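Audit log entry. Action: structure prediction of a protein-small molecule complex. Ligand: 2-acetamido-2-deoxy-beta-D-glucopyranose. The ligand was supplied as SMILES and no pocket hint was given, so placement is left entirely to the predictor. Protonation state taken as written. Sequence taken verbatim from the request; no trimming, no tag removal. Recorded inputs:
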Amino acid sequence: MLINLCRLLQTALLLSLQYAAVTAKMMSKADLHAKQAVAAQRFALEARPASRGTVKNITFTNPRASEFYVDGSTLPEIDFDVGPSWSGLLPISNATNETRQLFFWFFPPGPQGSTEDLIFWTNGGPGCSSLEGLLQENGPLSWSWGQAKATPNEFSWTNLSSLLFIEQPIGTGFSQGEPNIKNEDDLAVQLVGFMQQFLEVFSELKGLNFYVSGESYAGMYVPYIVNHIFENPTALDLVLKGFWISDPVIGWDVIQSELPAVNFVHKYENVFSLNQTFMAQIDAAAERCGYSTYSATHVTFPPKGLLPLPGKSTEGDPGCFLWEEVFDAALLVNPAFDIYRIFDTFPILWDVLGFPGSFEQVQVSPIYFDREDVKRAIHAPVNVTWTECSNINVFPRGDASLPSGYTVLPSIIEKSERSVIVHGLGDYILISEGMTWNGLQGFQTPILNDSFIVDGVGALGNMHSERGLTYFEVALSGHM
Ligand SMILES: *[C@@H]1O[C@H](CO)[C@@H](O)[C@H](O)[C@H]1NC(C)=O
Ligand SMILES: *[C@@H]1O[C@H](CO)[C@@H](O)[C@H](O)[C@H]1NC(C)=O
Ligand SMILES: *[C@@H]1O[C@H](CO)[C@@H](O)[C@H](O)[C@H]1NC(C)=O
Ligand SMILES: *[C@@H]1O[C@H](CO)[C@@H](O)[C@H](O)[C@H]1NC(C)=O
Ligand SMILES: *[C@@H]1O[C@H](CO)[C@@H](O)[C@H](O)[C@H]1NC(C)=O
Ligand SMILES: *[C@@H]1O[C@H](CO)[C@@H](O)[C@H](O)[C@H]1NC(C)=O
Ligand SMILES: *[C@@H]1O[C@H](CO)[C@@H](O)[C@H](O)[C@H]1NC(C)=O
């Protein structure tokens, strides 16, 4: 009887497998395309304007502004009109002997955007170019890794506001001069110095609401810049409203990378696919290094206070560099392993900016911003070899500032009208689990699961807003 039942089940299983195979094969191209269209539509906004309208162009009365004007229909390789924008180099002070200049690219708002607001964006590194954000994150055109050609970015921040990308600090991208900054305060002074020069040329932007944003190492830059502006309220003719930092560096390496690495691997065990021997070995190491006990004791809700160091070092103690051990093991089974987005597998995608994952691109292909025609179109110096992340150290003797989470972050949250921290849950370079917001003893109410809701899609992560800080964790998102 039992045997018969087993046979029956086996037959039923086989039949259902066959059926599944047949239906999969039968799905027509039209049906597949319909599925794809519905899936994409969920991420589209319901109320789409019938016409795209025109960009809110700004007339700058200072004749110098016209030197920087970029005609968006003439950008090499881009087959649509990006609209009016302004780019080039401006000095970081008005001293007559000033030789240091930062490269900027300014975009006025799109048809639905506000002309009252100005968003500043910087990438991190240190030494990585903000033109990466422009092309691959929040700018009006999108040319991401794997994309054969550029497309308009439906989710450009120019839909909200004017947007200013700056390659900073000195030593980054097209920016000119010898880096000499010692810490984040020096960086803020130079950036504010540049902004003063910028506002003299683009004086119609004076008085706007100002939002400072950036990602990764900009978790250091942005809070210190914001703090500097709050402490020198007359330095800039802008109304500072708040800041946004995504996947930010705000704490010690040991806390943001080493400590949470093993828990992170367990959370995404099937993505990493590391062997059982190795898993047992790193679990033992996490115990030995005190990371497991630390997580259970300190990374808890309600928060107990500032996170102490788990060992003796801010980087990690000898034998406890588990982030690096996991990275090596991950590369052994997945040579395309991308620390910035763990879901990537072979092949490594081509990247028009030459930095498609954990490592720089080895395929030979011209990097967009290193083409002479592109440099000429955007008033960039043609004699600079542009790379996404600089080969020289933009802090020649290191960055002497403490992580922003231990210094300026709490007070700038208090002073800002809006403060936003965002984290991509598929990011392995900086891991959200260790990133308990600690300045004000963290959140007093817990972050609820599935609380980040995308219209028409549903839950896509978690969010929480409390005492002036909004925190988002985005599912399926990487570092960029
Ligand atoms: C952004 O603006 C463009 C141009 O008006 C529009 O096509 C697009 O739908 C807007 N995107 C969003 C998310 O509203
Ligand atoms: C935008 O304004 C500038 C002057 O500020 C002008 O030179 C340019 O032609 C305008 N572009 C468009 C597309 O209207
Ligand atoms: C140079 O900039 C400083 C600081 O913004 C300002 O006080 C000074 O008047 C400027 N000098 C000139 C010649 O524009
Ligand atoms: C410009 O000159 C001043 C004083 O003459 C000096 O202190 C400063 O270092 C010089 N700046 C640069 C960038 O050479
Ligand atoms: C397990 O992974 C470790 C770390 O990558 C590696 O050294 C070891 O050879 C692997 N063992 C097996 C059986 O695959
Ligand atoms: C590039 O040219 C500018 C002047 O056009 C010069 O000031 C600068 O030093 C040059 N840079 C390099 C790296 O040659
Ligand atoms: C939230 O989700 C995590 C798994 O992602 C789970 O461990 C936890 O128990 C959930 N919390 C609540 C309150 O349901």
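Audit: result stored. The two ends are 59 Å apart (CA to CA). The chain has a mean pLDDT of 90.
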